């Protein structure tokens, strides 16, 4: 427990900004990867409906819903590989924070990074309750941090 006390825990505010940056990056990757399909999908909207933003939003929501498994897989790969390799995603890098194992205080091994990335999915899908945990736990751990035995610290 003394080792945990010596860690400089990242603030929830840094984590929120990091989360937003990472979600924007993953969304951009998704849009680049599926650019051709998105373009075809939007071209299928009749010209007279293109001025209505709600029609376009509905079409994009329908496209994302049809490809949600690809989006989730992209998120898991992004978070797994970057946390495993560097202890941080691009958002964490920008915010100068990183993920470490509670046991070793080093970047997580591959299986821990994968487990943490997989646990992020229910953290997000259930009204972000898994993320809200960070505001109420001593080490500002989210659901996926707690169960993967990781903590986010200042880099």
TrEMBL record:
> Where does the UniProt annotation locate this protein?
Cell membrane
Is-annotated flag, keyword Coiled coil?
Answer: no
Membrane topology term: Multi-pass membrane protein
Keyword match Ribonucleoprotein = no
RDD domain residues are: 10-148
User: What are the record keywords, sorted?
Assistant: Cell membrane, Membrane, Transmembrane, Transmembrane helix
Record-annotated membrane-spanning stretches = 55-78, 117-139
Q: What is this protein called?
A: RDD family protein
According to its UniProt entry, this protein's organism is Sulfurovum zhangzhouensis
């Amino acid at each position: 427990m003394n080792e945990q006390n010596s860690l400089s825990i990242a603030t929830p505010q840094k984590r929120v900004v990091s989360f937003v940056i990472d979600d924007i990056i993953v969304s951009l990757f998704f849009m680049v990867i599926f650019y051709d399909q998105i373009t075809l999908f939007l071209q299928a909207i009749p010209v007279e409906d293109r001025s209505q933003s709600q029609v376009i939003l509905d079409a994009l929501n329908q496209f994302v819903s049809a490809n949600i498994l690809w989006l989730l897989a992209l998120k898991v790969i992004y978070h797994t590989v970057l946390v495993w390799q560097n202890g941080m995603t691009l958002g964490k890098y920008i915010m100068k924070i990183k993920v470490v194992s509670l046991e070793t205080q080093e970047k997580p091994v591959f299986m821990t990074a994968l487990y943490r990335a997989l646990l992020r999915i229910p953290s997000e899908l259930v009204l972000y309750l898994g993320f809200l945990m960070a505001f109420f736990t001593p080490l500002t751990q989210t659901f996926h941090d707690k169960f993967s035995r990781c903590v986010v610290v200042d880099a």
